[in-house]
Amino acid sequence: GQNIDQPTEMTATEGAIVQINCTYQTSGFNGLFWYQQHAGEAPTFLSYNVLDGLEEKGRFSSFLSRSKGYSYLLLKELQMKDSASYLCAPTGSYNTDKLIFGTGTRLQVFP
Amino acid sequence: EAQVTQNPRYLITVTGKKLTVTCSQNMNHEYMSWYRQDPGLGLRQIYYSMNVEVTDKGDVPEGYKVSRKEKRNFPLILESPSPNQTSLYFCASRSTSGSSEQFFGPGTRLTVL
Q: Which of A52, B50, B103, B113 is most enclosed, with most CB atoms within 10 A?
């Protein structure tokens, strides 16, 4: 079956570091996406991991362990504008035709 | 500007009245997809299309139709809408070469009374 698990809500302080975890089970797997979605807006792409390991992109980094079915998104030097939902989306097949989105983690950043 | 557009952005309708939500992209992308987003359920894929005249079901296709007669357009058709189709709908597109990033439209909030 297909299952994605990520925390529903997280809070953090401006300037801090936060790690959003995601565990997944899919019937096929090619890679895992992370998207950011501000309330009432469209999701925007953050990262796509295919290989195991950490990929860094500015303040955001994403990690993948294929054997463990585990990923995390690391946000450094948090800013107020980072308050949003973060969606974990592994592919549901051996290509990127089908994505299975988690329900998202709502992150609130406080001053 | 590279973008995905959807129309209408907001729609209130009644049960059984056929409607179409349009989606258009100007990036010459081969792949297009429709999602619905509901509280507690996340984004769920309705239909997707790999190219003109090629469409396939996603996870929740019941009650929806799509067509892909032109590369840039991918309309979502609700032949007989029902209240359980009240949702926020997103269209997305991506290239089938290079980056796998999907670009999302701004969303269509549909209410079926």
A: B103
Q: How far apart are CA B4 and CA B89, in angstroms?
A: 13
Task: Report strand pairing: B65-66 vs B76-78.
Answer: antiparallel
Sheet holding B65-66, edge to edge: B4-7, B19-25, B76-78, B65-66
Instruction: Write out chain A residues lying below 8 Å of B41, CB-based.
Output: 103
Paired tokens of A59? 């303040």
Single-letter code of the amino acid located at B91:
C
Q: How far is B30 from chain A (nearest CA, A)?
A: 11
Q: CB-based contacts of A16: which residues, under 8 Å, 6+ apart? A: A78
Compute φ and ψ for B36, nearest 5 degrees. Answer: -120, 145
Contact residues, chain A, for B94 at CB < 8 Å = 96
- Which of B57, B49, B110 is closest to B75 using CA atoms? B49
Give the gap in angstroms from C-alpha A59 to the nearest C-alpha of chain B.
19
- The alpha carbon of residue A86 is apart from the nearest alpha carbon of chain B, in Å, by 11
Which of B102, B108, B109 is most worth mutating to test chain A (most A CB atoms within 10 A of its CB)? B102
- pLDDT in single tens digits along all 111 residues of chain A: 678 999 999 999 999 999 999 999 987 788 999 999 999 899 999 999 999 999 999 999 999 999 999 999 999 999 999 999 999 999 877 666 788 898 999 999 999
Is the Cβ–Cβ distance between A37 and A84 less than 8 Å?
A: yes
